[in-house]
């Protein structure tokens, strides 16, 4: 009697041949390389070496990131929080590290005044579950926006997020941590360290997303790192999962992503 595994191999081989034949005859709209399990394994092992090299390179970049010089912050700023007005140092809440997510929620953002940026909301869905883990590694996480605290609280309740979200309305906080030269602060231009993509955006009026990191040592707040645009991809678990799905992120994004309560099903 033929074993089940042998039947499985036969079915797999027959499916592969049928698919290949269909592709050759134009009977299928699938355009992708097909092969045997042995061919897949050989290609996968080759890819594994590249993935390992990417991991090693990523570890090196982490070390470079942590080796950046720290810059002392003289401005205390004044954030509106649910516990009253707080300085930047007070946002640490007794911890030595602070991560601030620059969440686009202001007059120039799609959805204003009821809702924050769809893209920032898409990323915030990934961030919310990480907060408790960060807190147990001496890291406080907050989001900040130009919107009033009242609008922030209303939208946060709608989305069901638990992370702290404060208002920087009336301060230059988002501008100060989006451009880093005197000319940039005067003109509002130079987002993402002057890369061309958003070169003409005026950050005095606009709000763009990013992540900034701070340390608190001997009572002094230090700016250690900021990242923007595609640099925030790694914060979003959905992007990471899609990168491992058969068709990846796709090519068209009309109507996607949406705020998680705006999908029809």
Major sheet size, sense and barrel closure: 6 strands, mixed
Q: Give the low-confidence spans.
A: 1-12, 21-27
Derived from helix and strand composition plus strand pairing, the structural class reads: alpha/beta
Going across the major beta sheet, what is the strand order? Answer: 1-8-7-4-5-6
Percentage of residues in helical conformation: 25-40%
Percentage of β-strand residues: 15-25%
**CATH superfamily descriptor of the largest domain:** Glutaredoxin
Q: Nearest-angstrom radius of gyration?
A: 24 Å
CATH architecture assignment of the largest domain: 3-Layer(aba) Sandwich
- SSE order: HHEEEEHHEHEHHHEEH
Quote the CATH topology of the largest domain: Glutaredoxin
What report would you give on this structure?
The structure is a single chain. The protein has 265 residues and is α/β, with parallel strands linked by helices. It has 2 domains: 39-68; 71-237, 3-Layer(aba) Sandwich (Glutaredoxin), CATH 3.40.30.10. The chain has helices spanning 4-25, 37-66, 118-127, 131-135, 149-159, 173-176, 182-187, 191-194, 237-242, and strands spanning 71-72, 79-81, 84-86, 97-102, 139-145, 164-167, 210-217, 220-228. The strands form 2 sheets. It has a 6-stranded mixed beta sheet. The longest helix has 30 residues, at 37-66. It is globular.
